[in-house]
Design a protein that fits this description.
Blueprint: H1 2-18, H2 52-55, H3 59-71, H4 73-94, E1 100-110, E2 118-133, H5 138-204, H6 210-245, H7 299-320, E3 325-336, E4 347-357, H8 365-431, H9 437-471
Length: 482
Amino acid sequence: MNRVRLSLVLSSGLLLGGCSVIPVLHKPAPPVAEQWGASGVVTSPAAELLRWQQYFPDERLQGLIRASLAHNRDLRVAILNIEQARAQLTVQRADLFPTLNASVNATRQPSSSAPYQVGTVASGGLALASFELDLFGRVRALSEAASAQLLGTQASSQTTQISLVASVASAYYSLWADRWQQALVDQTLATREASLKLLKLKYDAGVLNELEWRSAQSQVEAARISRAQVQRQWQQDLNALSLLIGQPVAASMLPPVPSWSTRAVDDVDALPRLDRAALWPVLSEVPVGLPSEVLLKRPDIIAAEQALVAANANIGAARAARFPRISLTGSAGVVSDSLSGLFSDGRSAWSVGGGLVAPLLDAGRSSANVTASEVRRDVAVAQYEKAIQVAFREVSDALVARSTWGDQVQAQQAQADAEADRLKLSALRYRTGVASQLDLLDAQRNLFAAQQALINAELARQQSHIAVFKALGGGVEAPAAP
């Protein structure tokens, strides 16, 4: 009767082993719109095919990105996490195969009967460690979960790489903005100092009143304050870039000192006009009418998907744990009455053992584990859907920012040009005695503020382009199956 029961258990196990206990995974449809923008027609290469080498054509920036990919510590940790996950997968897959060990044992003890002579028993050979027959797919389910975790770790590493590339590009363009702010402040300070010298002569001669003299002096000090602020910002941005690339930034990799446009007003009190086209290198464009399916290739979406696959596989492992576990042990080798003669005159010996453990009463633990695994799978589904929604929002925000910052920059350019013309007219009116010195100083101050705002707007526009690259996944391919 016992043999019949055992045969039934083994037969049912073999039948169940042919069927996976892992539930069929149905990925939810992306809970987002089908596309961005008004048109779904893609007229340029797909964004997922646009690599950072194409998106950032500036040679200095490319050198900085390559340095960061080689030396950044956060990326190094992410790569090491991949190696750790790969090793864990190897350990998990090893449970699918038996483990053989070489063993040599010797015991020396008195016999249990008179005259209680002391004897030696030595054995050596190969031993089979406890090996579970994976009849119900528990070990295979755990192996599939570990494989999904490895893919998720690889995707997380690619997310770190994309963020690093975008951060380096953003820091590089911030340094460009700092360069322009420095040039603007230096030019403004030199102009104001030259004007102050002339006003000092007028003040000493009694032609200029003290209010106008002190106002001009205040303008000079304000420019010096701005220079100190810009110098501080430059050094802090440089330190941030050094941290990203993992080493000091070479001078050859820094943005060059900008030069002013030759189109300038012809007065000592006026400032040259900023040429927006020459502020910094342009970035490559990406299409606007992209289908939302490109989000599924984002590494963070892939990581969320693999977390869902792992959670689903763990359900199969929890289900299989409710069935009996059969394990085998065994050994084969030689045995001898002395350790020295073990391999010369030893006798062959072998042993085979097996065990079966079947859950009977566990106070609902197995059922609770299955329920908990199913809940974790449902949580992973919700997190997967949320990851897609967050990605869609990031892309939408980046596209909107890119468009609106472009409009704002054009308006800022027009305002800066208008303030430059206003300063020219104010200087002319001041020389002819129509306007006061205070009117001229107000025009200088407004032009300086407008040009600073133009530089900041241009930086924001460029960073919005970088945000589009990052939000679309940076053109990183999906990780290969382990």
